Amino acid sequence: MKKIVCLFTILLLAAGICCVAQAEDSLQNIRKSGVLRAGVKDLTPSFALADIKTGEISGYDVDFVRAIARRLGVRLEITPFGGEENERIDALTEGRVDIVAATMTKTKEREKLIDFSHTYFVTAQKFLVHKGTVQRLSDLKNKKIGTVDQTTSVTNLRKSIPSASIVLFTGYVPAFLALQNREIFAVSTDEAILAGILTKAEKGVFEIPKVSISREPYGLGVRKGHTSFLRYVNQTLLEMERSGEAQRIFDKWFGPESEAPLERTFRITAT
Prior knowledge:
The protein is an alpha/beta fold. It has 2 domains: 2-122 and 217-254, Periplasmic binding protein-like II (D-Maltodextrin-Binding Protein, domain 2); 124-215, D-Maltodextrin-Binding Protein, domain 2. It contains 9 helices and 12 strands.
């Protein structure tokens, strides 16, 4: 009986060691390869957008993963995602990227599949409309509202405006084009994304009314159970907040002198 107990104990210890090793894999592999593979949405103005001429992707999300790569002392390799929102999580779980920085709201459903960092951006879901058409939430009742499929925006719209006809798109660019052509009444998603879209729109034609339906905290996504890498990412985010780097990145993309000015109503904290 003692032999069986000892054998069982050894197996448990071995399993624990394997779990620890697995949790450290991301961080060890990144350092060993010298590359941090980051997934971003490259059609999201102000967060990650590819330059038409050079193809270089830049934005708030890119600057954050670049800061993490710099602290690790490794090269940053950007992987752009297409229109499928679920690709963000699939890329992580399938091991195609090490981290995802892609305007991803932290939800309980997603936390079952991946781990999230501390919140590094907070926004609210709002609406982009033709100027003067919306003053209150009731103005959106029974209207066609466009948003991107497989996002929290869909769930929030169905809950907040059940009478609305929700039109699903593969990305924000086709959604905005539909608004421009008056095929839909509004586009709804996070205010920060809408502000970026607004910078590319004709001046004085569209606006984002002061009507919101949810709070959206963004987290950087890492593979489930890779606690060493997650801890490293969180420590980096807290250091960026303390040093003022996080504020500088925000001001670069959303400050008063930026194309998409927003108020920073949050700080990066461990809670």
